[in-house]
Design a protein that fits this description.
Radius of gyration: 26 Å
Bound molecules: alpha-D-glucopyranose
Number of strands: 33
Structural class: alpha/beta
Number of helices: 18
Oligomer: single chain
Distance between the termini: 44 Å
Helix content: 10-25%
Length: 734
């Protein structure tokens, strides 16, 4: 019997006796009821969608915002269209799809991770999610949490560093912020898509324990903390099987072990068969990038031919429907064109950028610069136009637009990657922060002129920059473009030289010991120029701490040469992003470090980095004392942090565990804000999985019995307190 139930304004056809109340609160019941009411055609329609920008205007859904993708719903059953936008740094507008549309640009993922502050992640997520919904999107393709395994990785700027606990915690908060707007967020790219070279043909070969203790743990923590309604599977193969049809990843790990109830969407152009729907994939997105319509006409054929059972279709549709109910997408229709308070949103971006700046070096207390500074010369980095941002699908056209924008893909096939400058220019920010100083600018191309200007000024500030983008990895970790020589010349001409790095990755600094003050500002986003100036002037006490290791050279890396780097393609420049089309042979990617990513590798090998994971100076200083460790049950660590300097500020004490013969691992941190002289006790409770080994045979986490060294540190190489404790053997479900 069919009847229409009107429930809290929600009217939908019911073909079942599920109670209205139950359906309102029980997403599974609602999904089953709607599924039963859907025709086969309506079901199939939910399982695939195009990248609108690749459709002729006449083929696009009328009234649907043009973004990264969409999937048509079923209006008669109140099943909404899914209208999708990128990405983690704001509502992207790749190649000006929505002519002139701008959005608030958050600082890069590495900047966000440098804050070590989940509240900043949540606030930023809530802000960009609000802009997405206001612009007509109810799916935001955020949550990139691939680990930074190689500092040449083109998308590392989007991601959240090298440690699974830090990355997973930050991405979980970001996702919960985005979904607070009643939109669907993703977590991506599942899994081990840790470099761009070879991303759609290479196979990552890694034993299960290493995966579980690193990349997979970051996803597991992010899913537990953020509850993303969707997971985006990655382009690459894992163990020889494409991630988007990999039963180990999508059925065994994600659903059987982690109990994940959301849906899995493909990356754009990452689907290779209709049978993928029986291996855990639920939706083909960006279908016009795939070789075939695997989840539309070919799926109907596979059903008819018995190669795909109907239950696989019903399971996929049910998961997608459930996601629209759990997030509120189904019950809160889009109303595009809502007003956006870009001023308020810019303030969110400013706060994030300020907290993400890392003071790497400050010899002789050069910083903060005194207000009495009468002449400041700013050199390089297009500092007069804006701040640099990373290229690719996450690229946000900032409020105020780009002041400079140009093609940047190193290969002929990568036409959609752009290098852009926007947001508040550092030059303007510095002029506002030092109103009584004469602040001049040179682009730095004429090195002798830059050195002469530096000599004539009281202070010289060099903006060093390095572009990074999706679809391409950097060739090396040098700043490049003659910037090292520029910095050498300027610092030789003026002992009060400050280098501000706008980079998307760790970089080499051959001039490090000749420059008294160095800031890592990353890609600082909409209000980046102001954030840089506020730290330089002392209006903000820097509190960023590195989420990645800065190596002294590529020779220290597990892979001194990036895997696949020599795999040149038809046009000799394009990296293997389009490997299949460009005839590249599949190759294997092996990461010798296994789960010892980043600082863990440096610890295991006894290597001294240029700047260690966790490093970050302040304009004040902090002391740790009274360490107490108890190992009964869960490992608990308590200690006192005291601000022994003259400025208020937050600190980020890090707690690591060192097991006999094993690399150290971060098990927790705190971010107390302390006035001068103030002290506070902080406590950390360790997640046992972080200090456990994963036993793939028994599929259990194993905390081995024995002595564990606990370290309270300012960074991975600067330990302040140590204590040993005994832990008894413990095993946990995967
Ligand atoms: C891209 C990216 C993914 C993005 C998607 C849609 O290739 O890998 O992060 O969300 O396609 O643009």
């Amino acid at each position: 019997m069919r009847k229409t139930i009107s429930l809290a304004g929600i009217a939908f056809l019911s073909a079942t006796t599920v109670s209205a109340q139950e359906r309102a609160t029980n997403p599974d019941a609602r999904a089953n009821a709607t599924l039963r009411a859907m025709s086969q055609e309506e079901k199939i329609r939910m399982l695939h969608g195009p990248m609108p920008s690749m459709l002729p205007p006449g083929k696009r859904l009328p009234g649907v915002a043009i973004g990264a993708g969409y999937v048509e719903g079923t209006q008669r059953l109140r099943v909404p269209n899914l209208v999708m936008t990128d990405a983690s740094l704001g509502v992207s507008n790749l190649n000006d799809l929505r002519p002139g549309d701008v959005a608030t640009a958050l600082p890069s993922g590495l900047s966000l991770a440098s804050t070590w502050n989940p509240d900043i992640a949540r606030q930023g997520g809530a802000m960009i999610g609000g802009e997405a919904r206001a612009k007509g999107f109810n799916v935001m393709l955020v949550g990139g949490v691939n680990l930074v395994r190689d500092p040449r990785g083109g998308r590392n700027f989007e991601y959240l560093g090298e440690d699974p606990l830090l990355a997973g915690t930050m991405v979980g908060s970001q996702i919960s912020g985005v979904q607070s707007n009643r939109i669907i967020a993703t977590i991506k790219h599942f899994a081990l898509n840790d470099q761009e070279t070879g991303r759609n043909i290479a196979s990552v070969e890694m034993d299960e324990a290493a995966m579980r203790e690193s990349d997979l743990l970051a996803f597991q923590i992010g899913i537990e903390k953020g509850d993303p309604a969707s997971v985006m599977c990655a382009y690459n193969r894992v163990g020889g099987v494409f991630a988007c049809e990999n039963p180990f990843l999508l059925n065994d790990v994600l659903r059987r072990d982690w109990g994940y109830k959301g849906f899995v969407m493909s990356d754009w152009g990452a689907v290779h068969s209709s049978e993928a729907i029986t291996k855990g994939l639920d939706q083909q997105n960006g279908e016009n990038l795939d070789a075939k319509p695997y989840f539309s006409t070919l799926l109907v054929e596979a059903l008819a031919g018995g190669r795909v059972p109907q239950v696989a279709v019903d399971t996929a549709v049910r998961r997608i429907l459930r996601a629209t109910y759990t997030t509120g997408v189904a019950d809160h229709p889009l109303a595009p064109g809502q007003a956006i308070d870009y001023e308020a949103n810019g303030a969110v971006a400013l706060k994030a950028a300020e907290e993400g700046i890392v003071l790497l070096r400050n010899e002789g207390g050069v910083l903060p610069l005194a207000q009495t500074a009468r002449s400041i010369v700013v050199i390089g980095g297009t500092a007069d136009l804006g701040v640099l941002s990373g290229g690719g699908s996450s690229h946000v056209r900032p409020v105020g637009g780009f002041k400079k924008l140009g093609r940047a893909g190193r290969g002929a096939a990568i036409t959609w990657v752009k290098r852009g400058y926007g947001g508040t220019p550092p030059l303007d920010g510095i002029r506002r922060a030092f109103p009584s100083a004469a602040v001049t600018y040179l682009d730095g191309k004429d090195v002798p002129a830059a050195a002469a200007a530096a000599k004539a000024a009281q202070v010289a500030i060099v903006i060093g920059e390095k572009f990074a983008s999706e679809a391409d990895d950097n060739v090396d970790i040098s700043l490049g473009q003659g910037q090292d020589a520029l910095i050498e010349a300027v610092s030789a001409a003026n002992p009060k030289t400050v280098v501000v790095l706008q980079v998307g990755n760790p970089v080499a600094m051959p001039w490090r010991d000749k420059v008294p003050a160095i800031l890592a500002a990353w890609y600082p986003g909409q209000r980046g120029g102001d954030a840089i100036a506020h730290v330089l002037s002392g209006k903000v006490n820097p509190s960023g701490h590195l989420p990645v290791t800065f190596p002294a050279s590529e020779a220290q890396l597990p892979n001194p040469k990036l895997p696949g780097a020599d795999a040149q393609l038809a046009d000799k420049e394009t990296r293997a992003v389009y490997g299949l089309a460009a005839g590249l042979k599949p190759f294997n990617i092996v990461y010798p470090e296994g789960s010892d990513v980043g600082y863990r590798w440096f610890d295991r090998k006894g290597l001294k980095p240029l700047f260690p994971f966790g490093h970050g100076l302040s304009y004040t200083s902090f002391r740790y004392s009274d360490l107490k460790v108890t190992g009964k049950g869960k490992l608990k660590v308590r200690f006192t942090v005291t601000n022994v300097g003259a400025m208020p500020g937050p600190d980020v004490p890090q707690v690591c565990v060192v097991r006999p013969g094993k690399a150290k691992r971060l098990i927790g941190w705190a971010k107390p804000m302390l006035a001068p002289g103030a002290a506070r006790e902080v406590s950390i409770v360790a997640d046992p999985r972080v200090l456990a080994d994963f036993d793939a045979k028994t599929r259990r986490w194993v905390v081995r019995a024995g002595t564990y060294r606990i370290e309270v540190s300012h960074s991975a190489t600067e330990t302040a307190l140590k204590a040993d404790t005994q832990l008894s053997r413990q095993t946990l479900a995967p």
